[in-house]
Design brief:
CATH class of the largest domain: Mainly Alpha
Number of strands: 2
Strand content: under 5%
Radius of gyration: 22 Å
Structural class: mainly alpha
Shape: elongated
Number of helices: 12
Number of domains: 2
CATH topology of the largest domain: Rhomboid-like fold
Largest sheet: 2 strands, antiparallel
Oligomer: single chain
CATH superfamily of the largest domain: Rhomboid-like
Length: 295
């Protein structure tokens, strides 16, 4: 059997579809347009707009039983720049989390991070007046995605401000420390640091204690090859911007190269996870994909 005949080394020929990450971005853009159009309609109380009164998250709203705010605040944004930055973060982190965990688990960690982050922010608002303000934005849910991504690929390189490279695991640790620091030390009241912290901790817990539903591990002979193809694709993710070091040329014939070099790596992924791979193994997988592309 030639290397191109292996199901797990071929890309599926299916009609392309939009991922849930993209649909989520579309939904918050639509919500922002709705917010801008109706944002000036006054509410019954406090002189605020009805969107802020009913749909943003606040201690006042939860006291009045507006529990839907725990969901709706995640679709509102304070400005066009706020919307752009959050949409970009969902596109960067959400796609990887969705690919690795599946669409359902992607939604779970995102909305769980948003709800728990919102509850932490509001909980502090019940105690400390400086936290007692309306909260809007997808940041808490995005923090859940960031934490999940860092747990999936701790050595992936992120570019802070598109310049400074930092590994995902250190970015996660730094984000938690900064959120804690600014909760303790008064800072910009327009940034919900407690919501960020709640989202980050939710993402860590989600991955650490496997609150997501893992793929079934039952032996399925006709699904094994497809699973290996998915692992090859997933394991070659080196960083968020698509950069993968150029692999060294392989001298082995294709079939021997797959059986001798690639199959043991796929078995290692199945046993220990993608994060267990070293740079050489990732280069081998990328080389395998390029061999398939040339056939």
């Amino acid at each position: 059997m030639g290397v191109a005949d292996r199901d797990y080394m071929r890309e599926q020929e299916t009609r392309p579809r939009l991922s849930l990450s993209v649909w989520l971005i579309i939904s918050i853009v639509i919500a922002f347009a709705f917010q801008e159009h109706f944002g000036n309609v006054p509410s019954p109380e406090n002189g605020a707009s009805w969107i802020e009164y009913y749909l943003s998250l606040s201690p006042h709203g939860l006291r009045h039983g507006f529990v839907w705010q725990l969901l709706t605040f995640q679709f509102l944004h304070g400005s066009l720049m706020h919307l752009f930055l959050n949409g970009f973060a969902i596109w960067v982190f959400g796609r990887i989390v969705e690919q690795q965990l599946g669409a359902v688990n992607f939604l779970k960690v995102y909305f769980a991070g948003g709800v728990i982050g919102g509850l932490l922010q509001v909980g502090l608002g019940f105690i400390f007046p400086r936290f007692d303000g309306p909260v809007v934005g997808a940041s808490a849910g995005i923090c859940g995605l960031v934490a999940a991504f860092a747990m999936i690929a701790p050595d992936a390189k992120l570019l802070l401000w598109l310049v400074l490279p930092v590994r995902a695991k250190y970015f996660l640790i730094g984000s938690i420390i900064l959120a804690l620091f600014f909760i303790i030390v008064p800072s910009d009241p327009g940034i919900a640091h407690a919501a960020h912290l709640g989202g980050l901790l939710t993402g860590v817990a989600f991955m650490r204690w496997r609150f997501y539903a893992p793929r079934r591990k039952n032996w399925r002979p006709f699904a094994d090859k497809r699973r290996k193809r998915e692992l090859v694709k997933a394991a070659t993710v080196k960083n968020l911007y698509g950069f993968v070091p150029k692999p060294e040329p392989e001298e082995l014939p294709p079939d021997e190269f797959i059986s001798r070099e690639v199959d043991p790596i796929l078995d290692k992924i199945s046993a220990h996870g993608i994060q267990s791979l070293n740079d050489r193994e990732r280069k081998i997988l990328e080389a395998a994909r390029k061999k398939i592309g040339k056939r």
